[in-house]
UniProtKB/TrEMBL annotation:
Taxonomic source organism: Methanotorris igneus (strain DSM 5666 / JCM 11834 / Kol 5)
PANTHER family according to UniProt: SULFUR CARRIER PROTEIN MJ0990-RELATED (PTHR33279:SF18), SULFUR CARRIER PROTEIN YEDF-RELATED (PTHR33279)
UniProt-listed PROSITE patterns: UPF0033
InterPro entries linked to this entry: TusA-like, TusA-like_sf
Domain called UPF0033: residue spans: 3-27
A Pfam family the protein falls into: TusA
Protein name: SirA-like domain-containing protein
Highest taxon listed in the record's lineage: Archaea
SUPFAM superfamilies to which the protein is assigned, alphabetical: SirA-like
């Protein structure tokens, strides 16, 4: 699954990530892309503190991309 949180500022990207992760089955991955770079660390912190695996987390030319495994 992939969600785009471009144009959103915190806490909205984290809330959208949480909602999307709840819809996934164990072992599935969620890709989150956006343009508000501070959200990258907030999403990463949320995922790790809730037992999810952060597969990749990177800043991109236009913002960020993070992949989380449930």
């Amino acid at each position: 699954m992939k969600i785009d949180v471009t144009g959103d500022i915190c806490p909205v990207p984290v809330l959208k990530t949480k909602k999307a992760l709840e819809q996934l089955k164990e072992g599935e991955e969620l890709e989150v892309v956006g343009d508000y770079k501070p959200a990258l660390e907030n999403i990463k912190r949320f995922a790790e503190s809730n037992g999810y695996t952060v597969v990749t987390a990177e800043e991109t030319e236009n913002g960020f991309r993070i992949v989380i495994k449930k």
